[in-house]
Design goal:
This protein is an alpha/beta fold. Helices cover about 35% and strands about 20% of the residues. α3 runs parallel beside α4, α6 runs parallel beside α9 and α9 packs across α14.
Length: about 500
């Protein structure tokens, strides 16, 4: 889809999309629309209430050309993610029948005073609506147009901000589409090396440094927990180090660590078979880090951003790590492995310790599809947030509100530390207690941050994939990329 910014509709526009929130001045907006379409406004009022994803189509003739106006409801007080999803849904359902030349209008007083956030969300949603999840289908059918041209219509006073927002929407959509492909791909098409290759190609394209440690180097470095998880797999692990540096002075250093388990059988503590096929998405945290590094480089943020991804399968073999085994870690602490299905925290432990030792970031964040406990606590409406820094939590919450990617803080009290005590090692990876699983997992990770003063752990097990209208089963959401980029932009703004 090709976008251009204009100040009035042109004859080439065959269909105009008008996004409208429910709590705006509907009478004024609909009167203006009715005037352009040449239809009685009362007819529109009776049929359109601007509910979320509601669509009402108006047909009219202009200069002997047949045209359409699509009124698209956004619901009450829509967040940017609501706007994005409304546009994505609209295109996804109609991409086989949409005309090649579209208009997206913000000229009917149907947007906030500064329409830029909506422009970005709409452009992003329009592009993601074209996303095709059928990566490996052999019978793909071309229906309707494959190329669209979209004119974004805004008032002249908003030209600069709308242009930037339009470009941002395109950048996000391109990165998110690739992240969707990674998370949706089956494990036989998505090995640890595939994640590494993705990072290498992205780094070359957008100008940031990528180094990939192979199995031999991982052994030499002493990333023992990563090696222990990988023992049962025929596919070797990788440890991916991505580093974006701005041309000028970096305002701060942000360290990101993502769980990159490309398939999780649970190891010898094997999972039930019912939903095991979804474990191809157990690298959702890694995907968020990959996307965030790419976006930081695209946007040329004045921050030093480091992304670390320990990547491996967690498989079953005669030499797999066994429950009760004691393993080492990069930090040097010994770990009693009570449950081999609590593998994500093991590889994150090595990643966090490596980040602190080698990069000393001002802020340290890890993301992982870590625990079913978090899903049982928060459902699929928010990820779990754990942090030792109230200021960091406040800024992340502000980004949650702006982006619609929600987190909810859970405690990190030291009362839970006793759950990790081991008779034979420095600590154990699982308490054996079915309660407070997300919290004890976070307490385990805390043991490997070397008392870093600004650390946040995001358990996104319920957020990285979701049921939606865009696929027949759970599929990738790209959760975390928009949230982290918004958070980093906030850091930049406060130091400007």
């Amino acid at each position: 889809m090709h976008f251009s910014l204009l100040h009035q509709a042109t004859p080439s526009t065959e269909a105009l999309i008008v996004p409208i929130a429910q709590k705006t001045d509907l009478d004024t907006i609909l009167s203006l629309v009715a005037e352009q379409a040449g239809v009685p406004v009362d007819l529109i009022k009776n049929d359109f209430k601007a509910a979320a994803k509601e669509v009402h189509t108006l047909y009219f003739t202009e200069k002997n050309q047949s045209k359409r106006i699509f009124l698209l409801g956004l619901g009450e007080a829509p967040r940017t993610l609501d706007v994005l999803n409304a546009l994505r849904s609209f295109v996804f359902k109609r991409k086989a029948s949409l005309p090649a030349n579209l208009g997206l209008s913000f000229l009917f007083k149907n947007a906030p005073e500064n329409p830029a956030p909506w422009v970005e969300a709409c452009v992003n949603g329009l592009l993601l609506g074209l996303y095709d999840i059928g990566l490996y289908k052999t019978d793909k059918k071309q229906e309707g147009n494959t190329e669209f041209r979209c004119e974004v219509l805004v008032d002249k006073s908003h030209k600069a901000s709308a242009t930037e927002a339009m470009q941002l929407g395109e950048a996000f959509a391109h990165t998110h589409s690739q992240i969707f492909d990674l998370v949706n791909a089956p494990a036989n098409k998505k090995t640890p090396q595939v994640l590494a290759d993705w990072a290498i190609n992205s780094g070359k394209q957008y100008g940031y440094k990528v180094e990939v440690f192979d199995e031999k180097k991982i052994q030499e470095l002493g990333l023992h927990a990563l090696i222990a998880v990988n023992r049962g797999s025929e596919r070797p692990p990788t440890f991916i180090v991505m580093e974006y540096k701005p041309k000028g002075k970096a305002l701060r250093t942000i360290g990101l660590v993502g769980k990159g388990v490309t398939f999780d059988t649970g190891g010898l503590s094997i999972k039930p078979s019912t939903n095991m096929h979804f474990m191809k998405s157990d690298m959702g945290g890694a995907a968020a880090v990959l996307g965030t590094l790419e976006m930081a480089a695209k946007l040329k943020l004045p921050l030093h951003v480091v992304g670390l991804i320990p990547a491996t399968e967690n498989s079953v073999d005669a030499i797999s790590t066994k429950p009760g085994d004691v393993i080492g870690s990069y930090l040097g602490k010994t770990i009693e492995v009570i449950d081999t299905d609590a593998e994500g925290r093991l590889i994150l432990a090595d990643g966090l310790a490596y980040a602190v030792k080698h990069y000393k970031p001002d802020v340290l964040v890890d993301l992982a599809t870590l625990t079913g406990s978090c899903i049982r606590t928060l459902g699929t409406y928010a990820g779990g947030l754990f942090s030792n820094n109230d200021e960091l939590v406040g800024k992340l919450y502000a980004s949650c509100d702006r982006t619609g990617e929600r987190l909810w803080r859970l405690p990190l009290w030291d009362d839970y530390k006793k759950e990790l005590k081991s008779d034979v090692a420095d600590l154990k990876n699982f308490s054996g207690n079915p309660s407070a699983g997300a919290i004890t997992a976070a307490k385990f990770l805390e043991e490997f941050i070397e008392k870093h003063p600004a650390w946040a752990h995001m358990d996104i097990a319920g957020m990285a994939v979701a049921d939606s209208e865009f696929a027949l089963q759970k599929s990738a959401t790209g959760f975390g990329v928009r949230l982290l980029i918004d958070y980093m932009k906030g850091l930049i703004a406060e130091t400007a």
